[in-house]
From TrEMBL:
BP-aspect Gene Ontology terms: proteasome assembly
Name of the protein in question: ARM repeat superfamily protein
Pfam families: Proteasom_PSMB
InterPro entries documented for this protein: ARM-like, ARM-type_fold, PSMD5
Any GO CC annotation of this UniProt entry: cytosol
Length: 573
């Protein structure tokens, strides 16, 4: 069996793990000399002069060619990479990277070059031979070399054809995972990001679960153990890694839940000694609520924690605001009610209700967050029903604030929240709620109208459409959902001014506002045509205007004008 002169020295198992950078460099130089003089080299004619042309004593030509390669426009195919490596073998590049890093621009150029090499299928196929050098790179002082090494691990795992135990064995033999963890915890931002990507790629292998999630807490790589030894920044990075792994699949999320790693997040949130760390942990919890399969795991642990934060007046307002937003996101999911009982959901809504009561006379960010949270909850059918049927109904805060023209940001948040509750963003068959919830909604709207100078719901809606553009946009959303109710349709038809605004193609100037106005117009038209009002002769004019506006479309279409001759006195010279 014929062996390449590179193989006998570069196969990962043949290099002791205690080699220093000097030892590695010496090994590289020796391997290069053997390779260049060996009759087995596939390019023997070029090999006789390569040691003179590309001597490590003068890396100028390597630097120039690597720069051209790294900055080549477009993607590189395997043939281009093979051609480059035939001219500059990997041992030459790696040795130069390790021994000539003091040459200006060389390290950055070679790192960029190697990154492009290893992103290709051919380049990635060479990585197993050089895994020991990847191991050395993960320990390097240079942050960009560490970043390259993390990315190289990712390329190896993503391009490994046979997702078998061999890839994991190579990772274990070279002790790669602990080094990736160290890069994640102690590297700069780019290194930490590259490390988390590599670990996520590793997690795609079922055989890697025992490496990433060891059962023994005393294992050095157990994430709970790692977090206990870290600085506050390191702990947040470990938590972020847990969240990223959690999002990969429900099976990994289950492993994380059963390993009690989510309790690390809860511990940091409860930590009142460092507001920034607590806020970071809440941000990660917010990220968890976006995971499709997260509801079944978060519902079991999160509700009581959020309730305690929202109810705690001594906590920082920014922390309560974030807890409010997380509550809204969590209860906006239709499937959350499969995993949480109704009393728990009502208890959390009650905490928000009480908090809004305390903030009633204040125009603060926390109040807006609370209104947005209720709007998030109201976007689901079950959530909207709970908001309208609780006693007293938590939705009252939204309806009152939505029509307070002095409310500013508070009014805008409330209008969008009301749009969610009335079903503007729900499927057509989910707009109308159950009888008790619908009656509560109608009663709240008429109650607010009777207490205002407008006296009627139609007057309230018209006043919103007469405000600034951002308020009109929210108003269109409210009417789009609300007009599915017959009582609201009758109110709108009683105000010709509302019909004039929603059918006016010149009313809005931005694309999103034009589309919102048009959707509102379509909703009114559809509700009108399916109601008994369509047969009322007194409303035939409204029907015509709505029909014409729907046919016209959302955007302003200028009517075609014929060219007309212009008669003028000729200029005389």
């Amino acid at each position: 069996m014929v062996h390449s002169p590179f193989n006998f020295i570069f196969v990962h198992a043949s290099l002791p793990k205690f080699l220093s950078f000097t030892d590695v460099s010496a090994a590289l130089t020796l391997a290069l000399k053997i390779s260049l003089s060996s009759p087995l080299h596939s390019h023997s004619k070029q090999s006789t002069t390569m040691d003179e042309e590309f001597s490590l004593d003068d890396p100028t030509q390597l630097l120039e060619s690597a720069s051209d390669f790294a900055h080549h426009p477009g993607s590189l195919n395997d043939a281009a990479v093979k051609d480059f490596l035939d001219r500059f073998p990997l041992p030459v590049i790696i040795s130069a990277l390790q021994t000539k890093s003091d040459v200006p621009g060389l390290e950055n150029t070679l790192v960029a070059c190697l990154e492009r090499v290893f992103k290709t299928k051919y380049g990635a196929s060479l990585i197993p031979q050089y895994m020991t050098f990847v191991q050395v790179g993960l320990k390097a002082d240079s942050q960009i070399v560490r970043c390259l090494s993390c990315k190289t691990v990712s390329s190896f795992l993503k391009n490994f054809d046979d997702k078998s135990i061999y890839a994991i064995k190579l990772i274990i033999d070279c002790d790669i995972y602990p080094l990736l963890l160290d890069c994640r915890v102690n590297g700069d931002e780019q290194v930490a990001t590259a490390a988390i990507d590599a670990i996520k790629n590793l997690a795609q292998f079922p055989e890697a679960m025992g490496i990433i999630f060891p059962s023994n807490f005393n294992e050095a790589t157990h994430l709970g153990n790692v977090a206990s030894r870290c600085s506050s920044l390191g702990r947040v990075r470990v938590l972020s890694l847990i969240v990223k792994l959690f999002s990969i699949s429900s099976s990994i999320a289950s492993v994380i839940y059963n390993s009690n790693l989510l309790s690390l997040l809860e511990t940091e949130i409860k930590n009142s000694n460092d507001t920034l760390v607590t806020l970071s942990a809440l941000e990660l919890l917010y990220e968890l609520t976006e995971v499709q399969h997260g509801a079944q795991f978060l519902a079991r642990t999160t509700f009581q924690l959020l309730h305690s934060i929202i109810s705690n007046s001594s906590m920082e307002s920014i922390l309560r605001s974030r807890a409010l937003m997380i509550s809204g996101r969590l209860l906006s999911k239709e499937n959350i009610y499969m995993f949480v009982d109704e009393p728990s959901a009502k208890s959390l809504i009650s905490a928000i209700d009480v908090r809004l009561g305390l903030l009633d006379s204040q125009d603060t960010d926390e109040r807006e967050s609370a209104l947005e949270a209720l709007g998030g909850i109201g976007s689901s059918i079950q959530g909207a029903v709970l908001l309208l049927t609780s006693f007293p109904p938590a939705a009252r805060h939204i309806v009152h604030a939505a029509f307070d023209r002095q409310g500013g940001g508070k009014q805008l948040a409330a209008l969008h929240a009301l749009g969610n509750i009335v079903g503007e963003n729900r499927p057509e068959d989910g707009v109308i709620l159950n009888g008790d919830a619908e009656e509560s909604l109608r009663r709240l709207v008429y109650e607010v109208a009777s207490e205002s100078s407008k006296l009627t719901p139609s007057g309230l809606l018209l006043s919103v459409l007469q405000q600034a553009a951002e308020f009109r946009l929210a108003g269109y959303r409210v009417i789009t959902g609300l007009v599915a109710r017959v009582w609201c349709l009758m109110e709108i038809c009683s105000k010709p001014e509302i019909i004039s605004i929603v059918t006016d193609p010149t009313a809005e100037t931005t694309k999103i506002a034009m589309e919102a106005r048009y959707n509102c117009c379509k909703a009114i038209h559809k509700s009108f045509m399916s109601s008994k009002l369509v047969s009322d002769p007194a409303l035939s004019g409204i029907a015509g205007k709505l029909q014409e506006a729907v046919q016209r479309g959302p955007y302003l279409v200028r009517k075609h004008t014929e060219a007309t001759p212009v008669v003028m006195t000729a200029e005389r010279f």
